[in-house]
């Protein structure tokens, strides 16, 4: 297991600049073997931390994308009914005894079971758990509490190497207390300007230093305008990347930033608001 300094170095090597609070939360989750529940505005790096952790820990990333109507079969396991039926017909045609149609070979491993069965351990991302129905959380409790799943036909499946679990939520609804109690919780805020500048420059090295300062200042100002959809770090990086393309084609940086605003703001009313105050946003 990585110590905190090695973890920080590994994250930075993968261009993820965690603040002290997030770094502590990830470190404790790894050491204590607790699921990590991350909340925050969209685009602050909740999902990305799981992908980066998989690379740092050299584990496979297993992702469960949550949505309304997600059920246990889609998240845990399902039986391969067509394959079972073919096995029955083959046995009947050959006059052989019908074997166990609930054997492992007929089991379809969905993300939760796949993460338990991974021989080297996996990083499991349960993304946007708040989008799933509240009833789905009950299916997660046994898994998060003991890293095991009960398959009625096979018994209890336990992890030889417990997965590293990261759950994310955008707070479209409140999560149940029972789920929260099983997790180590951390809220990820928008980064301070210095850290956001480091993130932008790491992902878009061709951006000029002065332009990076202007861009980060403009993003911080835009988030204070009461927009319907606040731009996240991902939008800052994409805005920098798009503006760099236009600047490379000959546009001055202020012009390039204005022309590429559609990469930062994704709503018509918000775009009009930012356009109207653009000169003030980029002013020193």
Automatic annotation (TrEMBL):
Domain AAA+ ATPase: 32-194
Coiled coil: none
Gene Ontology MF terms in the entry: ATP binding; ATP hydrolysis activity
Highest taxon of the lineage: Bacteria
Pfam families: AAA_5
Protein's UniProt name: ATPase
Record organism: Actinophytocola xinjiangensis
